[in-house]
Specification:
The structure is a homodimer.
Chain A lengths: L3 H12 L5 H7 L4 H13 L3 E8 L8 E8 L5 H13 L3 E8 L4 E7 L2 H13 L4 E14 L7
Helix pairs in contact in A: 2-3
The structure holds a DNA duplex (17 and 17 nucleotides).
GO molecular function (chains A, B): DNA binding
Pfam families (chains A, B): AsnC_trans_reg, HTH_24
Protein name (chains A, B): DNA-binding transcriptional activator DecR
Chain lengths: ~150, ~150
DNA sequence: AGTGAAATGACCCGAGA
DNA sequence: TCTCGGGTCATTTCACT
């Protein structure tokens, strides 16, 4: 499905989506046309999901990351759907995973500071179908990457 | 520091970095020049950290997400530096946070399947300065976003 | 699947309000 | 800070290998 050239294109575009087709072509010893066609194919097959700008969270006053662990005491389809919809609409929640383990869900939340996280927790408390189990405050970010290894 | 127009530009580029300056200009009822200048300023001030392509993890055979929680029994500067460097060099580790709480670090790991996670755990076991405390398998992804709310 | 060339369109900059 | 306009460069398509 993906040959060596495709993988190299994906590796490079994951690091820098602003690389021109010409630059990619030079790097991979090809002309622009095949690179162009390959990128279009990777987009069409949705291997490339999109291109986004990444911001510095601290510089936009969302530098505090907190993980919020919640459980769902009454585990029904209605409660699952309801909770997941709410979470998807909350802009502070960057990520949410349904886990196999002690807690049912883990939310990664971006806030300005702990005070703002306190407000967030109050909103969570209003969601009847889940109970906040615990919070884990991030002291510092060791690694954040969007680059998936395609080797 | 950021006015309404800057915030709108950031909001749009976080969703789709392929928007042309012309399209942004039309959306915001301006000409291309001010949009161009503003984007250059946001890049220079590193509010925009970069532009990346996002891939579909399942389609590149990295569809299994696992959170790996580790603790560091002997908490010294040397051990911290050593561990953080190793983590940063591991391509399976997408994210790693130093936490205030029961466990010291949480790693978000992308693997093909549980078998591949088993191999990963064996590598973690070789790192002398940390002990794997627990793993949380992701059943499904409820939300994943790179868009930070700048309102 | 690749090259090369030509048209289309985006980026980028300077002059002026 | 903005508009307008033009030169330069990247993207996209196509005929051919």
């Amino acid at each position: 499905m993906l040959d060596t050239i495709d993988k190299k294109i994906l590796k490079l575009l994951q690091k820098n989506a602003k690389l021109t087709i010409k630059e990619l072509a030079e790097e991979l010893n090809l002309t622009t046309s095949p690179i162009f066609e390959r990128i279009k194919r990777l987009e069409k097959e949705e291997i490339i999901e999109g291109y986004v700008a990444l911001l510095n969270a601290e510089k936009v006053e969302k530098g505090q990351v907190v993980f919020c662990n919640v459980s769902m005491p009454i585990y029904t389809k209605e409660n699952i759907d309801s909770f997941e919809k709410i979470v998807q609409s909350m802009p502070q929640v960057m990520e949410c995973y349904h886990l196999a383990g002690m807690v049912d869900y883990q939310l990664k939340v971006f806030v300005k500071d702990i005070k703002e996280y306190d407000s967030f927790l109050k909103k969570m408390a209003e969601i009847q179908v889940v109970k906040v189990h615990s919070s884990a405050i991030v002291l510092h970010n060791v690694k954040y990457s969007t680059v998936i290894s395609v080797d």
